[in-house]
User: What shape does this take?
Amino acid sequence: MGKTIVTVLGKDTVGIIAKVCTYLSNNNINIEDITQTITQGYFNMMMIVDTSNTEKNFSDMVEDLNGIGEELGVKINCQKEEIFTKMHRI
Assistant: This one.
């Protein structure tokens, strides 16, 4: 599958990073780069993950992460790297 861009946005709450990272680890998805900030109580995280070793297909991974986002009250988006790159090219 390759690399995927995962973004998490929403009101800050305890356990966001833990739940997302636990899911990724349990599904053999490696975090290659991660950045996160909290601004006036709002959480923003962007990760580049390597999904080449997971048995999950992309749509199942997206659905699972959407469910985790709903539990936490945040929005989690996943986008394949090649699509992200083409959309953000100048």
Q: What stands out?
A: The mean pLDDT is 92. Residues 17 and 29 are 14 Å apart (CA to CA). The chain is about 35% helix and 40% strand.
